[in-house]
Write the structure tokens for this entry.
Amino acid sequence: MASMKTDYFKLIDCIYLRPSGAIYPHFDTMVAGKKTKKSQDNINSRLALVMKSGKYTLGYKTTLKTLRSGKGKLVVIANNCPAIRKSEIEYYAMLSKTGVHHYHGNNVDLGTACGKLHRVGVLTVTDPGDSDIIKTTSE
């Protein structure tokens, strides 16, 4: 009887109820974490391809210049970019009808993804080259 009770608690521990009332195994929440990791690798590989075959600008000032001239196709913003700067870039991007992608890593991670040894807070893609980064980030 005691082993049956512990088996019941093990069963309760590995399932959970959703608000809809359906019962799902606990492992599907772990898959979501892997998916964000995979999408992060996906954007990193596309950024590396843009660095190799496309045209881009790094930095806040050059991003604003590119957006004002209307040449930008996609803006990538690090997650630790200051809020006022982020909102200004988003506003300029909205006016120039340019896509914005919020990078999940900080400016050090974005710089590393670009293959640079310094921090990159904002990146603008003007020509994607062989990469399909614009199509995949707009979805």
User: Anything to note?
Assistant: Residues 62 and 124 are 8 Å apart (CA to CA). DSSP finds six helices and six strands in the chain.
